[in-house]
Amino acid sequence: MSIRKLNWNKVIIVLVMPILLIILTVNTVTTAVSNKDSEKIIEQNVTDIAAYKDLILIHNQKETDYFTSSITSPKIDRDIIDKEIDKWISTKEKEFEKKVKKNKNEFNDDFKANLDINTEVLEVTDDIVTFVLNHSEFINDENDHNTIKTFVVDLNESEIIESDKINKLLNNKELLYKLVDDSLKKEQNIYSLIDHDKLKKSLNTKKDLTWSLNQTDFRLHFDKGEIESDIQEALTVNIPLVNLDGNIDEQLAEKLNIKEFVRIEKEKEEEYLKEAKRIKEEEKRKYEEKMLEEKEQKERAKNLKPLDNQEKYVALTFDDGPNPNVTPRVLKYLDEYDAVATFYMLGSQAKKYPKTARAVANQGHEIASHSVTHADLSNVSSSKVHTEMTDSTTLIEQATGVKPRTFRPPYGAINQNVINKARDINQPLILWSVDSLDWKHPNVNSVYSKVMNNMHSGAIVLMHDIHPTTADALPSILKDLKNKGYKFVTVTDLLQLTGNEDIGPYNSKKSNKK
Ligand code: NI
Questions:
Q1: CA 502 to centroid of ligand 1, rounded, Å
Q2: What distance in angstroms lies between residue 389's CA and the mean position of ligand 1's atoms?
Q3: What does the alpha-carbon distance between residue 67 and residue 65 come to, in Å, rounded to a whole number?
Q4: Minimal CA–CA distance to 497: which of 368, 383, 399?
Q5: Neighbours of ion ligand 1 (CB under 5 A)
Q6: Are 124 and 217 in contact (CB under 8 A)?
Q7: How far apart (Å, rounded) are the C-alpha atoms in residues 290 and 275?
Q8: SS3 string of 224-259?
Q9: Could you give the 3-state DSSP secondary structure of residue 76?
Q10: One-letter-per-residue 3-state SS of 55-75
Q11: Of 62, 303, 332, 514, which is least packed with CB atoms within 10 Å of its CB?
Q12: Are 261 and 170 in contact (CB under 8 A)?
């Protein structure tokens, strides 16, 4: 289908509009004709309508002592059709001139009656075209009319399609009212002005409802004031063609390809249902995932061996990694002493060094989260807290294949937002009871003594697997802790954490809250 055709039915044929002349193939003949009993023909134009061979629009503009008129009439080179349209136009002209004559005292050079008949051409199919003749006349306040006359013509059959072809619809008043009402509802500013009693009366009692067709719609036309009181012009109601299915002459339905509209509508409906189903399934999947996770968590909690109170336990933790140089060394020493530890990874680091991150998980250490960018979460917006905590969970899981179990806020900085979010994502907040200060004093002896001098059973030890000196200090720490009878456990083992209610923050075993 050509571009011109697509645009066509939206275009109102107003011959003076130059923009239109570009769309149309124009063949204009202008003649100025001299006086004839004070009647001046100002202009006569003929325009070819390229969308339909044989179709032209003839425009006549006239001025007399009493009135001006502008009339555009279609000519399709089909005698019966052309005569019928001409007859309607000339009747309107005669009626108008009669009324003008009756009131001719009212007119002078400054004030003349006016008659305007504009033809709008609407493409329906290759063989069917609609002419909408918009008729308006002004003689005086009592004679101020705007009415619509339509001719839907079948060029193939050389006939005007009469109302009997759509009688089934026009006579089904209940359906017709519903369709009109549905359509009007889509334009609230107009809908509020509609007088529904007038509308019902029009639909029920008017002998010939004015209707037309375009490529997508069945259209009903109402004269100015017919179904409302406040709109200054005739009103057109568009009803999608799909509604004509089963309600019009079968042959006409075939020509209008109504079944295709029905098919498209059905397809849209199916598409909608499919989408609704997809959304529902997605929700179900998410719900099941959540349920499964909760179940797994309960299972984990059940399987945690209660720690023996007579034993000494320590949870070593390493923050801010993974680091490709230090973390592998830390892993090596932990392995040598058969020790398990907990790694508070940064999401950004896990993303950068996924192999190192995965090696930590593969060696059986506990994976935990330490935010994405090491931001002070007590000092940022709640949405930033949200992304720092959820994104790091995602990034770390992507890298390690394991979902972080607990969260350690950078700098140990906590506020209500952090606590809320921790509860949200079910990651208890973990601080520490023994600080190696390995970042402040990157010195093997200092790290060793800070850890060993402050050691106690149930301790959570803070170290960083980004400083080489921390790795250097680790063998002697591990060796001596072992000699002193300490058992290495993960943070969750140590705290025997369970559900949401135990969100912390925790510093060590049994020391709940700061
Ligand atoms: Ni840190």
A1: 22
A2: 14
A3: 6
A4: 368
A5: 319-320
A6: no
A7: 23
A8: CCCCECCCCCCEEEEEEHHHHCCCCCHHHHHHCCHH
A9: coil
A10: CEEEEEEEECCCEEEEEEEEE
A11: 303
A12: no
Residue 59 to residues 47, 132, 330, 499: CA-CA distances in angstroms?
8, 15, 93, 84
- Segment holding 170, helix H or strand E: helix 167-171
Angle at 319 between CA 409 and CA 380, to 5 degrees: 25
Distance (angstroms) between ligand 1 centre and the Cα of 432 equals 12
The 3-class SS string of 441-486 reads CCCHHHHHHHHHHCCCCCEEEEEECCCHHHHHHHHHHHHHHHHCCE
Query: In DSSP terms, which residues pair with 160 in a beta bridge?
Result: 153
For residues 15, 16, 22, 28, the Cα torsion angle rounded to the nearest 10 degrees is 70
SS3 431: coil
Q: Which of 27-31, 42-46, 100-104, 484-488 has the lowest mean pLDDT?
A: 27-31
Cα 276 to averaged position of ligand 1 atoms, centre (Å): 45
Residues contacting residue 417 through CB under 8 Å, at least 6 positions apart? 377, 382, 385
CA of 373 to the centre of ligand 1 (A): 10
Residue closest to 447 by CA, chosen among 473, 466, 468, 481: 473
Residue of 66, 57, 60 whose CA lies nearest to 26: 57
Q: Give residue 368 CA to ligand 1 midpoint distance, Å.
A: 12
pLDDT digits (tens, 9 = 90+) for 326-382: 999 999 999 999 999 999 999 999 999 999 999 999 999 999 999 999 999 999 998
Q: Would you call 298 helix, strand, or coil by DSSP?
A: helix
Grouping H, G, I as helix, E, B as strand and the rest as coil, residue 42 is strand
Cα 69 from Cα 93, distance rounded (Å): 9
* Average pLDDT along the chain: 87
Rounded to an integer, what distance in angstroms lies between the CA atom of residue 250 and that of residue 263?
A: 17
Residue that has been written with the tokens 């349209």 in this structure: 85
Please give the distance of CA 186 from its chain centroid, rounded to a whole number: 19
Please confirm whether the linkage preceding 409 is cis (ω < 30° from 0).
no
Q: Mention every residue, 6+ apart, whose C-beta is less than 8 A from residue 483.
A: none
> Are the C-beta atoms of 436 and 481 separated by less than 8 Å?
no
Contacts of 7 (CB under 8 A, 6+ apart): 23
- Contact (Cβ atoms closer than 8 angstroms) between residue 66 and residue 112: yes
**Which amino acid would we find at residue 171?**
N
- Which residues participate in catalysis according to the annotation? 319, 464
